[in-house]
Design a protein that fits this description.
Layout (H helix, E strand, L loop, with lengths): L3 E4 L24 H10 L3 E7 L1 H4 L5 H17 L6 E5 L22 H10 L7 E4 L2 H10 L3 E5 L15 E3 L2 H9 L2
Parallel strand pairs: 1-2, 1-4, 2-3, 4-5, 5-6
Bound molecules: magnesium ion (MG) and zinc ion (ZN).
């Protein structure tokens, strides 16, 4: 079985400028790509799990989301940190786009994306790790049975004192990976 690191996207991989959907607005968090490469070198599969309710809300289309994802994946690849998969939840119960305006099992804090990734990529969840910037990320990891879950402060809730059920909190992905790999 393979161990993975599940990464939330907005606020962990890239700055959360709210409903980021244009490549021009996609600003990598400093050190995130290098941290991802170190995780890949340590034998972790890299999987992004991202809530994208902007699709249900009609702020951008799923096609725009996929176009941005393609460019993001290419950068990870070039940096020696290829992504095994990227899962997104396009839903929101209060959305305006009929096809996506519903309850679902994939929007975090629900565990659907993580469970699907584990099934499709034969991942061992107890041996895996999640890194997110919101408590809903941590809750999704817990609900899925992910072994460890870390909160990072590179998102928009940086001053939030509560770390919920996270195992620890770090400034950003780079510091989290420093601690994980004892570097
Ligand atoms: Mg986030
Ligand atoms: Zn969903």
């Amino acid at each position: 079985m393979t161990r993975a690191v599940f990464l939330d996207r907005d606020g962990v991989v890239n700055r959360d400028h709210a409903y980021v959907h244009r490549w021009e607005d996609f600003e990598f968090v400093p050190g995130a790509l290098d941290a991802a490469r170190r995780l890949a070198d340590a034998g972790f599969r890299l999987v992004i799990v991202t809530n994208q309710s902007g699709i249900a809300r009609g702020y951008y289309t799923e096609a725009q989301y996929f176009a941005l994802t393609e460019r993001m994946c290419a950068v990870f690849e070039r940096q020696g940190a290829p992504l095994a998969a990227v899962y997104h939840c396009p839903h929101h119960p209060a959305g305006s786009v009929v096809a996506f305006a519903r309850e679902c099992d994939c929007r975090k804090p629900r565990p659907g994306m993580i469970l699907r990734a584990a099934a499709e990529h034969l991942l061992s969840l107890p041996e895996s790790i999640l890194v997110g910037d919101k408590l809903s990320d941590i809750e999704a990891a817990r609900a899925a049975g992910v072994g460890r879950a870390y909160l990072v402060r590179s998102g928009n809730e940086a001053s939030m004192p509560d770390i919920g059920t996270a195992d620890a909190a770090y400034a950003d992905l780079a510091q989290c990976v420093d601690a994980l790999l004892h570097t």
